[in-house]
Structure formats: C-alpha cells, structure tokens
Write a structure and sequence with these properties.
The chain is of the alpha/beta class. 38% of the residues lie in helices and 18% in strands. It has a seven-stranded mixed sheet with strand order 3-2-1-4-9-6-10, with helices on both faces. A four-stranded mixed sheet has the order 5-11-7-8. Helix 5 crosses helix 10. The protein is globular, with a radius of gyration of 18 Å.
C-alpha cells in the first residue's frame, strides 16, 4: 500500500522562498502527498504562488507559527504528518525509503543540511540518538531538529497538537512530550532529510535570548531541569557531529565574519 503523508507549510510574506519549498515536493514518488499552505494573511504573493504550484491554501489570521501548524495538521490528509517552514526544504526524493524504514515506529527523523540563501550547503547536523533523547530534554537541551521529522497522526492527536503558549519552542515541547509519552522514535543517519535555510531575518536568531528563556521555562514545566545527567549524552551527541564543527570552524577561519559569511560561502552538495 502506498504510504500517505500530509505536509503543512506555515507561511507569511514568504514569496521569495515558498516556490523552492513547494517545488522540492514535486519530486516525490511512491508516496501520496497532501500539501497545505497555511497563509497568515500575507501582503505579498505568497498565497498566489502556493496556489499556482498546486498546494491547497488556507487563510488564517497571524497568531503565531504553531497556531498555523495546528490548523494545517488538523485538516491535512495522511497517515504520516510533518510541517516545513516556507524557507526550508524537505527532501522529497528520500521520503518513500524513510517511511518504509520507519515501519514499527511513530516518529522518524534524520540529519539536516544547513544552507544559505542561495541553497548552498554550509554543514550537516545530526540529531541525537533515540536512546539519549529523554535525558537530553530533561537537561534543558533540544536534541532533535524539527525539519524533515515525520510523525504518525496518532502522535499529533494524542498530544493534542503543538502547545501554542510556547510561541518560540513549541516544537521542542512537542517532541519532549512525545518522548515522555513513550512513542517510538527512529533515526536515520545516512541521507539528509531536509534543509534549514540560514538568514539574518530568522525569528530564532532575532529573538535568540527570548527563545533560550522560553526553552528553559518549557523544560521546567515538565520536570526540574536535570543538567548533569545529560552531560555525557550531550558529549556523545556532539562528538558525532565532528564534521559539522570542522566545517563551521573552517568557514569562520577562512571566510571570516562567522554567520555573516553564510551568504557567500559554499561547502558543497549533499
């Protein structure tokens, strides 16, 4: 039986990037996709571009990204679900293999490429192994990247969606709750599953301090923050990403400017 996947794209004034996000989904095979763009009353051509590319478009007053995600996931069809930001990319060519590999699991995730505005790869980051997720979340860390993470509809329904009181870290809260609920996580480590686009206007970078404070409050809302038990797991997780540290260190050393160099430096293809 062909697997079914619902993909939600929350968007607001994303005309510059939503075309590439949706175009990537055209390459999917052996998976039935239902793609819904939840447009937060954009003042540019976001909705028009999305509709022209065949996506269903739902208009929603802008009440935060996770409100839009919940709205989309409640209406999209599919046994499996995911969401991707309107400036990121889901690698559709690996979806079929990932869903086959995820049989017997509830959440499937894998490595994510970090790319610049032009789509050039900067480095690749691996999320932590399933056996380490609980202790890392309890230590106040965020060990799982959302981009390209697939989950069964049962996960969304049992957790009652994303908790919109967390305006910046509801994705981390969602995965934390899924871990605590006992859902089965499966990690792939070979092919990248998605790309996260780095640019100066990202909410996470503009409000980094607010995000860190909210993440700490979110962790405490689940249980006391247990930092020390998570340190060994964090060392193992970060050691597994040694290539990423070398790539980022090389960029800083040879290109200068750190994040400012992201727009002009290419590390190669995935």
């Amino acid at each position: 039986m062909t697997p079914t996947l619902g993909v939600v794209v929350p968007a607001r004034n994303a005309a510059a990037t939503i075309g590439s996000t949706l175009a990537a989904l055209r390459d999917v095979s052996d998976v039935t996709l239902d793609v819904v763009v939840v447009d937060g009353q954009s003042t540019d051509n976001t909705a028009k571009i999305a509709a022209a590319m065949g996506a269903r478009v739902t208009q929603r007053p802008p009440q935060g990204i996770y409100d839009a995600v919940n709205c989309g996931l409640s209406s999209v069809a599919g046994e499996w679900l995911t969401y991707i930001n309107a400036d990121d990319v889901l690698y559709a060519d690996v979806l079929s293999g990932r869903l086959d590999h995820a049989a017997g699991h509830d959440v499937a995730y894998g490595p994510v490429d970090f790319i610049d505005r032009a789509g050039r790869q900067l480095h690749r980051w691996h999320s932590a192994a399933p056996r380490h997720l609980r202790v890392l979340y309890r230590a106040g860390l965020s060990p799982l990247l959302q981009q390209g993470t697939l989950f069964r509809r049962e996960v969304f329904e049992r957790l009652q969606g994303f908790d919109t009181r967390w305006r910046l870290v509801a994705d981390a809260d969602f995965w934390y709750r899924a871990v605590e609920e006992g859902f089965r996580f499966q990690r792939s480590t070979k092919l990248s599953v998605a790309a996260f686009r780095m640019h100066a206007g990202q909410l996470g970078r503009l409000r980094a301090a607010d995000s860190a404070a909210e993440h700490f409050a979110m962790t405490k809302s689940h249980s006391p923050v247990r930092r020390w038990p998570g340190q060994l797991a964090a060392l193992a997780w970060r050691a597994g990403n040694w290539r990423s540290y070398i790539q980022r260190g090389s960029r800083l050393l040879f290109c200068g400017g750190g994040f400012e160099s992201l727009g002009s430096y290419a590390i190669g293809s995935r």
